[in-house]
Design a protein that fits this description.
Distance between the termini: 44 Å
Structural class: mainly alpha
Number of strands: 0
CATH topology of the largest domain: Tetracycline Repressor, domain 2
Helix content: 55-70%
Strand content: under 5%
Radius of gyration: 19 Å
Order of helices and strands: HHHHHHHHH
CATH architecture of the largest domain: Orthogonal Bundle
Largest sheet: none
Number of domains: 2
CATH superfamily of the largest domain: Tetracycline Repressor, domain 2
Shape: elongated
Length: 194
């Protein structure tokens, strides 16, 4: 496979996702935009869903699991991995997430390729906190780890909004830390003003 052709095809798919949305994205349109054949696309991605997810994934890199030694800071850093400026990445992600509400195959593919790696950040940090004795062993880590990703999904897909840093700190301080029985930062501390 030729990496330059792959990049051109993914860029064309990204452009069309931004301009037309997933529903109107076609392999023909991507082929025309990239100056390639449909056969070239199908050799790389067997379906429109696979192409759209690959186009979105190409814009993201999953950060490493943070380990600052401070549970709150690690959770905030996990949440900040969900922050995106209002540029290309955010528009492509919004197109995929919005369409995934109505397309089960797209939803599953996007969850596996985009959601799981980011959601895994929270689960890893929370499991490690249990191992270190920072939070009680009886905490349902898997469920708590799904809270932030669910809020992020709802904000983007249902409300069409981008997450901002204040959203991250509010969810960590007012939802996640209380859910795991960890102390919340005191009002007015440097930790709440970010």
């Amino acid at each position: 496979m030729n990496a330059a052709i792959d990049e051109e095809l993914l860029r064309a798919a990204q452009d069309l996702l931004i301009e037309e949305g997933f529903e109107r994205l076609t392999m023909d349109a991507v082929a025309r935009r990239a100056g390639a054949s449909k056969a070239t696309i199908y050799r790389r991605w067997p379906s429109k869903t696979a192409l759209a997810v690959a186009a979105a994934v190409a814009l993201f890199s999953v950060p490493e699991v943070p380990d600052t030694g401070d549970l709150r800071e690690d959770l905030v850093l996990c949440g900040r991995a969900y922050l995106h400026d209002a540029g290309r990445r955010a528009h492509v992600l919004a197109a995929v997430i919005t369409a995934s509400r109505y397309d089960p195959a797209l939803r599953e593919a996007a969850r596996d390729a985009l959601g799981a790696p980011y959601g895994g950040l929270f689960e890893h940090v929370l499991s490690r906190a249990v191992d270190r004795g920072l939070i009680p062993e009886g905490i349902d880590v898997e469920t708590v780890a799904e809270v932030f990703p669910a809020i992020a999904y709802q904000r983007v897909a249902a409300r069409g909004l981008l997450l901002v840093d204040d959203d991250v700190t509010r969810v960590v301080d007012n939802v996640l830390l209380p859910a795991v029985g960890a102390p919340r930062p005191t009002t007015g501390s440097a930790r709440t003003a970010r």
